[in-house]
Amino acid sequence: MTIQLTELNIRQQARIVEIAGGHHMLTRLAHMGIHKGIKLSMVSTPIIKRGPVVVSVSGSQVAIGHGMAMKIMVEHLS
Question: 2: part of which helix (H) or strand (E)?
């Protein structure tokens, strides 16, 4: 099942299956090590669902704006 990155719970792991953004957004995410096919886990998410989410990618923690995170589609990993 595919969901938005913002729907992951803390410590859940997922794989990116699609990023619905333009060239600028894809390039910006790529510079942070985030691209289709990569595994990540949710570190923190804002209570009010507006602030940035923090994910762990390849051993680094990265903060992503909520709007951008909503455009990243992931699938849960067991």
Answer: strand 2-4
